[in-house]
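Standup notes
- HV: blocked on the assembly model, inputs below
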Amino acid sequence: MDSASDKDQKWEPKIIAFLCNWCSYAGADLAGVSRFQYPPNIRIIRVPCSGRVSANMILDALKAGADGILVSGCHPGDCHYISGNLYARRRFALLKNLLEFIGIEPERINFSWISASEGEQFAELVREVTTRIKTVGPARHLVKEIG
Amino acid sequence: METLFSQTTEAIRREAKDLLESGKVAAFLGFVKGSLPTVTRPFVARTPEETDKLVWNGLCVMNLANYLPGLLKSLEPPRRPGEPPPEGPLPRVGVIATGCWSRNMVIQIQENQMDRERLVILGVDSHGMIDRRKLEVLAGGREIQSLEETDERVIISGRDFKMETARQEVLRDNCLTCVHPSPVILDKKIGPTVPERRVHEPFARIEEIERMDAGSRWAWFQEEIATCIRCYACRNACPLCYCPTCFVDDSHPQWVGKSIDKTDTATFHILRAYHCAGRCTDCGACESACPMGIKMRLFTRKLQKDCLELFASEPGLDLNSPLPLTTYQPEDPDTFIIAGSKKQGTQGGSEK
């Protein structure tokens, strides 16, 4: 029992962040070169566009043991591919609701828009997301125990 | 006895025979009796004589739109990949369509899976189809050896019992909440018109689940899919599932494991439902095909509700209105998006 609570105290969430190449990844880069501090819990995966991120990928990350997901793209209207993020927005709205409907905590699945000039906002976003995911604890649903 | 169904059966046989005899169609897709009294079987009639076997009743639960793209393709002359189709019109297919099936045909046409020109659609207004499982519950485990159906009643009998019930009592759940019983595209109408239905609280069950807390919802979801044997009958019965390689069969990357591990089963059901988002017409074929009685329609129903609420969109009602996930509006709901602390850009960004 003690070891379990010890483990819980030491637990740090693993967050998979899908960042679009043109805005959010550059925003993360800016946060880095500007020396803005943010929690080291995110693992960034660079994708060409937030529209590239499919439900398969999000569920795969959860299956592999991610405690939370962050998908970030360009602000509406700023998409490098004109409208990729607007199609993505419709899909994410449905996916987030569906996952919530079957009992996944809404805090785990996060979507945001971060532009290439928003380094500070990116650092703030990661802090916010990490806090949100810490409040719901380690992921238990949809994690595959034996792979 | 003359019933609505026997009249419609006669009319369908007559029309199908005409179509095949005149050579207007190369095949006619309908239903024939199945091997059990509570089951019918989709059937392709290729000669005028075969049309005598066609039936129409409340047990025609499989969605005929599912078989159309494959059937149409099989009627084309064989050709190599990339080779253009031959000159002149390709063989056509006659098919029966109710409200939901015709909407699935619209979606398949919109998604370029088939050509409207190659279909001759006999439209039948649906009176609702019967849930075989509700009949089995009614029979209390005894074997149903025969079934009779009138306009309002269903009579089942077996070795030592005979029972009668109102049709309404044994209709499928999706038929009870259906508001579009009439086909949206058709070439000829068969049988009487059923008025657009007004359903009080069509999403009652979904709202009930939404009111539960996250833990209970997860428990409900796990219980619902616990008996799944991953036979993929729901996928195969679905007219929306036509990918040459389904995500469940992908091995690199392997999105879903092959085992009946809890997580794999859950992933399968989430993704299967999600792939139907903004396309599902609630035809109920998935549930009717399921050998384990899983109510997976609730997952697609939730997506349907959200599409209606968030994007005011019902798929397949009109050939000219795009499916909800193939389009967007600048003012689409975005309250779920956390844009860092300042929440900036959500209003101004779309003006660029």
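- HV (later): unblocked. The two ends of chain B are 68 Å apart (CA to CA). The beta strands of chain B are 27-33, 40-45, 93-97, 119-124, 146-149, 153-157, 162-166, 188-190.
- Next: hand off to the docking folks.
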